[in-house]
């Protein structure tokens, strides 16, 4: 296969994505506007007839005091990952990024490796011999994923292992939880909820919890709950301008790319969440809640409203995003895994993120710098 790679316009990039069932929101031109500390560039692959057949959003992060860059394609590029001519796609990309001054390239092939059904995850949590999700037998395996990993290694790419005790990688999550919608009615999806979820939705309804769509002006309310959540769940919160910039950038690209949902009870907002939409893929992006009045179950009510709206949009998957790989009861993230799987979500492992050092010395120096941060 003969392919030509060159920078493309935002319009070309968006037209290509619109021709697909979906693509990651991290591979849209607007995501570059969300990351002002990075330089963004859209790349396109063209076949010999001049047709655009692949695209990728590259984020370039400068190395301190040196005009060299880390090139990052989160959950991308959007190409034919199972082609026998993968080198024809990736080698021109590496050559282009090296000319741009990149010392290392990081990418996240949007390729699923295996899946665990809700029942399989529940059984794994109950199994004393299963300490991590990877220890449990998967429900299904995606053909070709293992071979693709070997091909990348032979080409010189290095897989980034999930870091930290919770199994989350430093970049995008390798393990996510997804509720399949394709071919299922809303009643089917509701039947897929576990008993606790169904009870909690009824409890919220009986208690008078109402879920409404918010707008840009409601982001400070969301943010107040988000900072409370960050303190409770022990993570570093992003600043409010990050979410305001995300809303502005994504809404400018598509008026219904990002949504905000707010769960009200007796005049107070108890929970809030953002939702992202690209084609048939819908993501629960950021969630926040207060510890007050948790007994009225605002989170279940809010998520069910979001799932209902996603189904009405024709989504083929509702994506809860990252989950922990650990199954240890002592880990505070296990409750979040239970919550997401309880909604009928499958645990899904992706191929993970991969690095290609174009300059080994600078690549190593950057690793040391990031570790010290």
How would you sum up this structure, described in words?
It comes from Streptomyces cellostaticus. This is Peptidoglycan bridge formation protein FemAB. Belongs to the FemABX family. This protein has twelve helices and 16 strands. By secondary structure, the protein is of the alpha+beta class. The protein folds into two domains: 125 residues, Gcn5-related N-acetyltransferase (GNAT) (Aminopeptidase, 3-Layer(aba) Sandwich); 222 residues, 3-Layer(aba) Sandwich (Aminopeptidase). The protein is globular.
Write a concise keyword list for the protein shown above.
373 residues, Aminopeptidase, Peptidoglycan bridge formation protein FemAB, transferase, 2 domains, 36% helix, acyltransferase, nine-stranded mixed beta sheet, aminoacyltransferase activity, alpha+beta, seven-stranded mixed beta sheet
């Amino acid at each position: 296969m003969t392919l030509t790679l060159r920078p493309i316009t935002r319009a070309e990039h968006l037209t290509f994505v619109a021709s697909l069932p979906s693509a990651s929101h991290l591979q849209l031109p607007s995501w570059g506007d969300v990351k002002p500390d990075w330089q963004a560039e859209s790349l396109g692959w063209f076949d010999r007839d001049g047709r655009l057949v692949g695209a990728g959003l590259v984020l370039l992060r400068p190395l301190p005091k040196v005009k060299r860059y880390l090139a990052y394609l989160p959950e991308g590029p959007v190409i034919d990952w199972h082609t026998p001519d993968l080198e024809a796609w990736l080698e021109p990309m590496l050559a282009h990024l090296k000319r741009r001054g990149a010392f290392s390239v990081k990418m996240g092939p949007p390729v699923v490796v295996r899946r665990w059904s809700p029942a399989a995850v529940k059984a794994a949590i109950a199994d004393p011999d299963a300490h991590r999700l990877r220890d449990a037998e998967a429900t299904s395996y995606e053909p070709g994923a293992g071979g693709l990993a070997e091909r990348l290694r032979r080409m010189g790419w290095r897989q980034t292992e999930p870091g930290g005790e919770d199994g989350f990688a430093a970049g995008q999550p390798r393990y996510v939880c997804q509720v399949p919608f394709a071919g299922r009615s809303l009643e089917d999806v509701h039947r897929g909820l576990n008993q606790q979820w169904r009870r909690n939705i009824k409890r919220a309804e009986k208690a008078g919890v109402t879920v409404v769509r918010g707008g840009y002006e409601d982001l400070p309310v969301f943010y107040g709950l988000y900072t409370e959540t960050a303190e409770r769940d022990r993570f570093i919160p992003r600043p409010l301008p990050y979410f305001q910039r995300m809303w502005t950038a994504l809404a400018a690209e598509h008026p219904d790319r990002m949504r905000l949902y707010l769960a009200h009870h007796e005049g107070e907002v108890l929970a809030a969440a953002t939702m992202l939409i690209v084609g048939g893929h819908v993501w629960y992006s950021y969630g926040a809640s207060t510890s007050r009045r948790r007994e009225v179950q605002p989170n279940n009510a809010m998520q069910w409203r979001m799932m209902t709206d996603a189904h009405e949009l024709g989504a083929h998957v509702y994506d809860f995003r990252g989950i922990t790989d650990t199954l240890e009861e002592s880990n505070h993230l296990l409750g979040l895994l239970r919550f997401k799987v309880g909604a009928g979500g499958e645990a899904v492992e992706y191929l993970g993120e991969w690095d290609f050092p174009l300059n080994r010395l600078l690549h190593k120096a950057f690793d040391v710098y990031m570790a010290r941060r």
